[in-house]
Amino acid sequence: MKRRLCFLALTASLALEVLLEIGAREGWAPTAGSSERVASLRLALSLSALGLAGFLWFRSDRAQKGQKRIEALLEDADRAEAQVRLGTWSLDPPFRQTRWSRGIRRLLDLPPEAPAGEETLCTRMAPQDVATLRKHEETLALRGGSFHFEHPIRLPDGSDRVVRAIGEALEDPTGRVTRLFGTLQDVTELRALGSELESSRQRLQFALEGAQDGLWDWDLVTGETYFSPRYYTMLGYEPGEFPGTSEAWKALLHPEDREEVLRTIAERLVTGESQHRVTFRARHKDGSWRWILGRGLVVGRDEEGNPLRMVGTNSDITELKETEHRLRESEERWQLAIQGTDEGIWDWDIPNRKAFFSHRFKAMLGYAPEELEDVPRSCLDRIHPEDLPLVARTLSDYFNHRREDYRVEHRMVRKDGKVFWVLARGQGLFDTAGRPLRIAGSLQDITDRRNHEETIAHQATHDALTGLPNRPLFLDRLDQALARAERTGERLGVLFMDLDHFKEINDHLGHLVGDRILAEVALRLKETLRAQDTVARMGGDEFTFLLPGLGRPEDAERAAGRILEAFRAPFVLEDTAVSVTASLGIALFPEHGTGTLDLMRRADLALYQAKSRGRNRYETANPFAE
Description:
By secondary structure, the protein is α+β, with helices and mostly antiparallel strands. Helices cover 46% and strands 26% of the residues. The chain has 19 helices and 22 strands. The strands form 5 sheets. The protein has a 5-stranded antiparallel beta sheet with strand order 2-1-5-4-3, sandwiched between helices. Strands 7-6-10-9-8 form a 5-stranded antiparallel beta sheet, with helices on both faces. A 5-stranded antiparallel beta sheet has the order 12-11-15-14-13, sandwiched between helices. Strand 19 and strand 20 form a beta hairpin. The longest helix is centred in the N-terminal third of the chain and has 49 residues, at 35-83. The radius of gyration is 61 Å and the shape is elongated.
């Protein structure tokens, strides 16, 4: 560079010499006669050339250093543009000359050789956005000012980005627009972040509105507090009706709760705990007290850890508190009812296979409270095995909506092995699909009632003196035996018997002795029969026998013989021995009849025949007799 400057200076000096010679010939420069003037001029020209060379040399050195600084600044600017995904542009309106920084080419994903200008940019834009951009530029060129415009662009790879175009008009002192300058920035992520923030804000707002919570924001330094509209309305006020200060909030606290609430908050702030939760009462505008659940979070602290700001929500839990109170009262009543009743209470959580049994329930089974586990098997395993199918069937019918309630009588086995009768009742809870979720009920000991009912039923079907089945029960069993015999083709026998001369025993020894003899007769008769046979007292000294499943007719006669044999020994009553004999008549199915009345009549006729032939014997009915 220095050599070039010296060469230029010498060349300039020679060029001046030549010009002086030409000027002298043409008459516009000093002539040779004026040598002093020429010499002075030549000396001045030489010095000027040398000075110019030196000046150019100095300027060149400074220019190189400045150029380097400029290039460094441009590199820094380019890096900054790349970091914020931004590019700059300028436009000379008269000549439509556009200049782009490298940032814009990066933003549009353009190669370095792509021309800068509106036409190139417009290929990336939608037609309606192109029209809007051109309108902005025309307005700037004519009237000045600035514009701000966001629009999408389509990159070569097919992806879409959102860019923000900002333009400004540069004016001369007279107000004439001389140049347009601006930036183009990729704001896709910024827009997405803004959209997400707005969505978060809306979700928070919807959550607060849905939960009916009031929002508060407390500046711990100034005491100023923001209350959301819901905060006011939950206490019956219009938004902003009372001041947004912590003192206004404290004035609403119930006197009995104020000290505890303030102490709790102070502890959180002093101990450094961020979260805060407290329940208190606040005065409603109508003078009533509302239960409030207050929750807060310290969200700002200074360098020394001192709290600066606290944000939280208030929830109206008055209904919840009232419900808890009612539940507590109901629970107390329930406990008193459980303690006062003689029934055992049970509760079965079906999906979770858990159960509750009251102390009385466990005591009914002979267990201490801690001895019986609260699981369904504790009850089911103690149901009498013969009654378990009945209980299972009843439960199934109830769970499948084939009956309106669960009610069943069955036996249970105590810890000591004793059996007792219970009445189990329950009512269930079902889900929307009709599946059982829970069933609860009671267990009542009905052993005495069942025994009493069984006694009454026995008395209704059995003879009070002998304990044998009476006439109605005998006829019922005979009807059933005949129906079974018709199906199976088996033979059965019906025997009629009365005691010989029993009236004389009553007349001579008295009715009390006669009754004792009848009771003893019943005992001997039962001992002579099979398990499937039935002996009944029809009244007075008359007895009947039902002998099902006979193989041959002779089997009935052998049974009659055993009965007569039972009377061989006298009946000893204290110190008195009484001999008694009996007569029997036999009728067989199907030989002597197929109906109840036929067989009874034929057996009675056979008995009459045995008495007429001397008593103390049996006779079989004649199939041809009427």
